[in-house]
Each structure stands twice: as C-alpha cells, then as structure tokens.
Amino acid sequence: DIQMTQSPASLSASLEEIVTITCQASQDIGNWLAWYQQKPGKSPQLLIYGATSLADGVPSRFIGSRSGTQYSLKISRLQVEDPGIYYCLQASSAPWTFGGGTKLELK
Amino acid sequence: EVQLQESGPGLVKPSQSLSLTCSVTGYSITSNYWGWIRKFPGNKVEWMGYISYSGSTSSNPSLKSRISITRDTSKNQFFLQLNSVTTADTATYYCARYGNYITSNYFDYWGQGVMVTVSS
Questions:
Q1: What average pLDDT does range B56-71 have in this prediction?
Q2: With 90 as the cut, is the pLDDT of residue B64 above it?
Q3: Residues of chain B that touch chain A, judged by Cβ-Cβ distance less than 8 Å
Q4: CB A34 to CB B106 under 8 A?
C-alpha cells in the first residue's frame, strides 16, 4: 500500500495567517492527490484534486502544489470558517489511502 | 442535487455482521463508482471498497474476505456488509460517490456518515 505521511498533526494559526499542510507519499503517485476538509459533524469536502486543481465552489485561497512526492496545501489567508480537519488522499492506485489528518484551529 | 444517506444499526455485537445501506438520490448508481470509507476514533480514515456502475467491486485487502459490497439498482441503493466484526471496527462509516471525468478517481459527494459501535 502507498503510505501518506501528513504533517503537522495539529496546527493553531491566526486569522489572515498563511497555513501550509504537507503530505509525503511513500512512492510516486504523479498528480493523483486530493485534499479534503472536514468540519465537526460534517462529511469531508473536496478542496483540491489532481494535486493542484481547485474543486468547484472552493475559495481561491486554497492552493495545492507538488514537489516530487511531497504535496502541499496552502491556505493563503486563514478565515474564520477554515478550522477543521484536513486530509490528503492518494488516488494513484488501490487501495486508496489517506493521510493521518491535520487538525487546524484558530488561535 | 446528488445526495447520499447511510442507514443501519448503530450498535453491533462482536463476531456479528455489520450491514449498512447507502440510499442515493439525484443520481443513478448505474453511473460512476460508489465507495465506502470509514473514519476511526482518533481520525484515521480508511478506504473500504467500491462498487462500479456495472456492479463490479473492489475492496481493501486489509479487510480480507470480511467485506461485501452489493447494490439494488431498482432502489438506487448500495450496501456494505462486514462480517466477523471486532471492537476495532468501531468507526463512522461513510458512503461516497466517485466523481466524473477529471475527478473520477476522487470522492466528490459524501453521505453524512453513520457511527457504528461494536460492543457486547
């Protein structure tokens, strides 16, 4: 199975701050990576797919990037509605595997 | 609008079978792929398997032969059965749709999730 190592596990940031979350894949997955946001009591929402493409309706402050087998999600200016748990997902090969999650809180 | 809704018992005894239903509205399950995902206490998330538009299935090898995913196209529902459950199967279970075209490898619509506890 492809392992996705996500960091940090938790993060506290202030409004308008830049936040970056990373996922390291254990092998080449190309651009087959997605980012999800999950708020308490809600189901995950697709933010980014194809490593860099913004899903429909997602604010442009969410930015996905890739460097080799390391993938990053940047929130350019943290907003009050952004806290939650963020997950990466590799969709290169079965079994699909998720990162361990990053809990983002407002400071 | 595509909507998915999980249903099933919230409490299952160890060694018994867990059975869940995903009811889909606003879209036919004879298109796209449809998956089951679970989230454990502590936030670990695991892909369990999928059923395709044609009825073919694939599942996570970690579940070995315990899992079965089936469907009823007349009711636009698909199902999860997990046999011989243990307390380690306690989780929130989600059904989800795989997207179209460039998002076909990703889950774009999810149900709200159903919490299942395995306990005697």
A1: 96
A2: no
A3: 43-47, 58, 60-62, 94, 96, 99, 102-103, 105-108, 110-113
A4: yes
